[in-house]
Automatic annotation (TrEMBL):
Lineage, uppermost ranks: Bacteria, Pseudomonadati, Pseudomonadota, Alphaproteobacteria, Rhodobacterales
GO biological process: methylation; pantothenate biosynthetic process
Oligomer status and interactors: Homodecamer; pentamer of dimers.
Binding locations of Mg(2+): 50, 89, 121
Protein name (Swiss-Prot/TrEMBL): 3-methyl-2-oxobutanoate hydroxymethyltransferase
Residues at which 3-methyl-2-oxobutanoate binds: 50-51, 89, 119
Amino acid sequence: MSIQTETIRRVTVPQIRDRKGGEPIVSLTSYHAHTAAIAEKHCDFLLVGDSLGMVMHGMESTVGVSLELMIMHGKAVVRGTKRALIVVDMPFGSYEESPSQAFRNAATIMKETQCQAVKLEGGARMAETVKFLTERGIPVMGHIGLTPQSTNVMGGFKTQGRDEDTWQIHIDDAIAVAEAGAFAIVVEGVVEPLADKITKAIDVPTIGIGASKTCDGQILVMEDMLGLNEWVPKFVKKYGAMGDAINEAVAEYAAEVRSRAFPGTANVYGSNKK
Ligand SMILES: Nc1nc(=O)c2c([nH]1)NC[C@@H]1CN(c3ccc(C(=O)N[C@@H](CCC(=O)O)C(=O)O)cc3)CN21
Ligand SMILES: CC(C)C(=O)C(=O)O
Ligand SMILES: [Mg+2]
């Protein structure tokens, strides 16, 4: 039955959880059907991250991202893919109030987008919510360390754990979220030795971004690694130069329109010859 196999073909939450200590988990963010279709050929899961507010919509932080925007991009990515597990970020304000608020909004995200899991930011303080969702059928990916939705409290996107006295807080956050039932945890923007300790301290996979190669997987914002923007955080490696490629293509198009070289004979329609 095609309906059945379509579902089974995707990577599952238990498959990701079982990769602890195994072959590194590969992931990227995705906001868009066509780029997701390319990315899923090489990735185990794709994250529809709330960074889309900054990358796609020019916001200065992720704080302004709405549930509707996450659902819109989540639908696009699910439609564009067949095989990867799709995780959608819960936006700021959609889950912090209470476990029931989180459940209601996470269920809406899953019903509307047909994604397989949600991600939410926060350590020990979110453990009760992670447990509440997981026990009720919503797989949760955790996210600790640098949590961008708290940028206004932190005063910017600040690397965590520079001071060793703070390490135990982050390790305890990871343990709390893992014990609450998260199937994997994003560890973002922490010093490398702390990321190593966190990975050793929990029995679910850590997905690093600005963390360490010892994490059980890695994630980057796709547009960052494609080289779409000039400035990227230090932890990004640019594997492409999409910004330059777009600039060259648009410049050539503009020149050809101005010289009337475009449209050429191949790009126009003739009438039916009598
Ligand atoms: N395009 C994009 N890529 C990301 O990785 C990303 C987003 N957007 N939006 C949401 C969060 C915000 N992120 C960020 C943004 C900036 C820094 C940054 O300025 N880092 C400084 C180091 C700061 C410090 O040393 O404390 C750097 O120079 O890398 C880090 C993570 C990661 N996430
Ligand atoms: C950077 C990843 C982990 C994220 O949360 C996002 O893209 O929103
Ligand atoms: Mg995010």
